Structure formats: structure tokens, C-alpha cells
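Thread title: Can someone regenerate the structure for this chain?

I was given the following input by a collaborator and told the matching C-alpha cells would be attached. They weren't. Posting the sequence so someone can regenerate them.
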Amino acid sequence: MPLRLSLICLLMLLAVPARADTVLKLFVSGQVSQPVIRKALDRFEAGNPGLRVQIEVGGATSDVQAQYLNTVLSASDSTLDAFLLDIIRPAQFATAKWLVPLNSSIGDPGKFMQQYLPEYAKADTVKGDVVALPAFADAMFLYYRKDLLDKYHMKPPTTWDELASEAKTILAGEHDPSLQGVNFQGKAIEGAVCTFLLPYWSMGQSLEQGGHLTFDQPAAIKALAMWADLVKQGVAPKNVAEIATDDTRKDFQAGKAIFAVLWSYGWADFQGADSAVRGKVAVAVLPSVSGGKPASCLGGWQWGASAFSKHRDEAVKLVKFLSTPAISKLLAVDASLLPVFPTLYEDPEVLKADPWFAQALPVVQTARSRPAVPIYNQVSEIIRSTVNAVLAGTKTPESGATEMGARLRRVLR
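Best answer:
Regenerated them for you:
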């Protein structure tokens, strides 16, 4: 080929514009470490040339994040391609047709979901359709002052009655008016739903099955009375009806409580340099009512692909990648987020980074998911407002349970 013709061909090739990358936008909650998520996305991009992922961060709480996602998705907005969603949301989002069903992308859905902790597989499957994939786990733990229990020759309580007895003994011995027996969430927030369900579940009760109400009023009265009695006995703070999730974390971290009921995020803060309880904390399975079985409240987050994404196939690919054992391990080692794969709780690298995960698995395995119903927001509001009213003393456990049951029957038939 003549030199002149070769130069012309070369110039023509150079003039052809390079194909632009496909950019996906991923929404993550404000509690998650952006650098660690970025590291995961860098791995995804390296294995998928032509795809880039941008992170959008928003909201410090589940409620705030849900408000934002509701606004975007109810408008059929294609801005987001994939997102993190709280474990209480899959049924709601799937019913609204905001999520891409994943069955056709994961082969045999039943077999595929067996690799995860069972409650997450259950929460992410709605009417036979897998609608989201687990990201990282969470549960409510009983944190306790190991130094104080050792001082008084006590073991972690296995029942709430034992907890009250131990707390009263320690309070009497310490003579510290600022010390609380147990701190938990009584404010009318999502945490108060779990507050109600912990003893209710441990009595072997459920709130719904298959979307239908299975409310047990005597068990509800007993659950509400248990918490109210802890306040009357001076074991729980008098202002517990005003205590939100991070108030519990702050009080325990400041050395103001013997026991605390809190999510897993508290552990890292309790080990911080500014923590009054650093090196003095341990976790245990939550107590049960006498004669019952321990039950924790399941938390955690899921990856979902937006039904309104302009790049649905690529969004599904991203969601599947982010829900692999390799990324779950990355989140555990680099961000101390509980794995959704049972095998990772025995992984040497995970346990080297987070030795306390060995204590966490038994707690996570006792955790139960809150009602997986499309109208969960209404169910949550009924429970949280009732719990708050009983703890504030404006309702008795009996009247609270009666009202709760009547209101739940109107929304869960």
C-alpha cells in the first residue's frame, strides 16, 4: 500500500471517536464507608471494561434513605441504576414494581439463595421472585460490661428476668446514680418496633405469615409490660421513651449503662480511643422471656437494581457482583460489616480483622425479619407509636396491646 494511502487510513482511524463508557449510578447509605465501596467498584470496573460506576451517598438513617428512594422511584426516574435498601423494604419495593426481578439472572433461585444466611434469602424473595441480593448483615446484640459482670461473679443473662436481677445487684453495689441497668430504644422510631418484637418473638409468636395477621394479644401485653416494668424497677432509664438508637450507643460508650440493646455498629465505637468502655465490652445472644427462646431483630442491607434504569442488564450484573463472597469479605475486613455468608464467620482473615465476629454469628442466627409486607410502613408506625406511648406512661400495656391489635387488623387482614 502506498505510503500516502496508509497515512490517510491511519488518520481516518484516529478520527473515529472512542466509544463512551456506560456509567452506572449506585446509591448507598450514609453509614457505609465510601472508600471501601469504591474499592469494590474498582474491582467491578476492572473486570467489566466499558462500565463505570458513580456513587451517590444519602441519608444517615433508614427512614431518610427510604424517603429519598421513594421520591425517585415513584417518579419512574432513571437517575439511579442500583441501590442499597434496608431489609424491611424488598417486599414494598417489589410490590410497587421498582425492582428488577432477578430469577432469570441467577439460574436456580432456590439453590442460588442457599448460600446466604437463611433469613436474608427469605427477606429478598417475594412471592417466589428474588428481588434483591444481600449486601451485609446486622442484628440487635446484647452488649454488656464484662468488667462489671466479672466483678460481681455473674454470667451474661439468658432471660430478661435474670438481666433485671443482675442489673439491680450491680446498681446497688456501684452506688453510681448516673449508671443505668439497661438502655434500649423507646422513642417512636424503627428501633422501637424491634424493642416490642424481641420478647414477643421469644414467646414463639409471629406477627404475620404470608402477609396475614397472626397477632397474639396476651403475648403482646406481656412484651409491653416487660419493658414498662424495667422502667418501674429503675433498671431502665425513666426517659427511655425519648431514647433513639444512637442515644443508646452514646450512653453505653460513656460508661453509663451495664447492658445495652443495639445494632452491630456500636462495637467499633465502643473500642475507640475516646470510649469509656474500651476493652470492657462483650456481646451475647439477647435474653428471652422465661421459658422462651432467644430472638434478635434482623437488620442489614440489600442490593437492588432499579426497574427504571436505562442499563438494566448492567445494573443486574453490578448487583450480582456486589453480592459475592469476595465483596462480602472485603466489607467485613475493611469496614467491619457483618457477612451475609455463614462460611465467612470462620474465615481466618475475617476473624483476624474482626475477632468479635466469632461471637456475632450465634446472634445473627437467632435474628428474625420484621413483617415482609408491602404496607410495612403502616405496620411499623402502629407498633412504634404504641411502644412509645406505653413507655411514656400514657397507655397501659393492656390498652396498648388492644389498640395495637385493632389497628393491625385494619391493615393486615
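The two ends are 81 Å apart (CA to CA).
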